[in-house]
Amino acid sequence: MTQLIADAVSQAWTNFLESVVLYLPRVLATLSIVIAGWLIAALLRVFTRWTLRWLRFDALSERIGLAATLRGADLSPASVLAGSVVFWLVFLGFLLSGIDVLGLTALQGLVAGFGQFVPRLLVALAILAIGFVVANFAWRATLLAAVNARMSSPRLLSNAVRFLILILAVAMALEQIAVAQTVVLTAFAIAFGAVMIGLAIAFGIGGGAIARRFLERQFPERSDSDTDRVSHL
Amino acid sequence: MARATLLTDDLVRRLIAVGQVDVVVGLPTMNNAETIAGALQAVHEGLSQHFARARSVVIAADGGSRDGTPDIIGALPSGARDRHGGLRTRHQIVAAYRGVPGRAGAIRLIFTAADLLQARAVAVFDPDTDPLTPASIGGLLKPAGPDSFDLVAPVRARHPLERLLVTQLIRPLVRAAYGRQLDEPLLTEFACSGRFAAHCLAEDVWDRSPMREGIELWLAATALSGSFKACQTCVETAAAAPSQRPRPGLQEVFTPLVGSLFAALDAHAGAWQRDTAPEPVPVIGVEVPPPADPPAGAPSGLGGSFAQDVRDLRPVLESILAPETFAAVAAIAEAAGAEGPSYPDEPWVATVYDFVAGYHAGAIDRAHIVKALMPLYVGRVASFVTGHAASPADEVARDLETLAQQFERSKPYLIERWYRAS
Q: What CATH number has the domain spanning B2-284?
């Protein structure tokens, strides 16, 4: 009986040690992949930041209004942020490759899934970036046009324009990365439709006089405004 | 290259038939049926009186008039051009220019034709702006030529409270930057040498915005920044019946003119940032005293929205103005009452210079920078007009001179901001 237990324990230890001997190289390989990945990702982060600074990306982000938004959200400057995104994408790629080497059944397919996800994520980020630039440009153009045309509530109008464009961009980006596609699409359609219907009802019922004044201002019977009654030229 | 693409075959044929000329007079036209006959008559009389022996051609460059302006020009009786006593045959051509309607297309066509005809001098008059007189045509054209002046700009007697965009912004900025004092930098009418016209034709500005929209301002800046001789000539202002044409609003004139000036400053930075002593631009003729009666006073509440405008535009202004300038503007806005702000010379000059530097650096979209200056300009105009509502003309003129000197004194600030913003 004792012998049987001793054999069983011995066999278990033998199996365990064989497993360790078999598994250890994989663990070491995973560790080496993760460490190498971290180094490569860190180097790429430095390279990305350096390149973007050389290309004066921070000045560009200042110009398009991205820098102000990042400051408002207590985030790093655009070049630092872009470097971090590159770091985490590359490091995550290496990390998942390392995990794949371990051969864990439960985690198999993660790398393939990540490989498919990254291009979609990049497209989504590009959509967000473009949407942000367009939204800021439209916001500023609307604000200036409304102020110079002496329209009331220029900030409300310009912020509404920016908000709608940003919402559209966010919905498109979420759809691209396939995050709760149906929910996002439905929520966007409901929200957008509700805003439009709300505006139409408010403008139609409550804003008859405003609409008339608005149309009169848009199609005036050629009369000089206050600013035009002095001799500018 | 310009001749091949700008002039139609038919126009080239007609110009070749004209042959070499001494003087080209150009009239940019666009629905000028009301005034074109009188303007043409004045041009022909002026040429006969002052250039009787010169070979000349009058070119009406039309931008696609739909009121029959070209027909009116073409229907002038054949003897009408000679009855003023000219000794040489004077030609008259109506030509439609291609591209976007506007003064740039018309002036480009006139310059191209003058270049082809090897004209010594070119003059461009606006049939609408001020009534033309034979004396004003002679006064402008006579000093222009290869051996005398490359650009001749008019000096008209105006009340100092008129033309506020010129007096508050364009003229003092041009004077401070280029070191040359030009009374009419907008050049609604001017004469130039054939050499200057040929030089300008080679510039890549005719199809580019915003230079295209404010081409005369660009031409003036080019003359002042280059090795060209400029002068001014006193031109009488004839009484005119009020025009039936709607006057362009501030928005329509502010963006193209200020945008064109900022673009010119950007392009000529190397020239105007040189440390050269200011040079006067000679004035020919006797200056006529300005009218004593001021124009109608400022409408009440002209600058009433200044405070709100500054609050609304805060994020835009903060991205253009230096922090201390923005603080000064915000303080002016806070203190502004219903009658508008009190916007003194010093912060106004700093504001303009910050906008010029911001335009150069491209702090935000350049068209947006120009548009963001307009509400501040309206505030400054309200401040100046309200403050001088009861002032005699000479006192207003003195304060305009003080403003111009403030622009000159602050030029080092502009250069510092220019390089800091780059």
A: 3.90.550.10
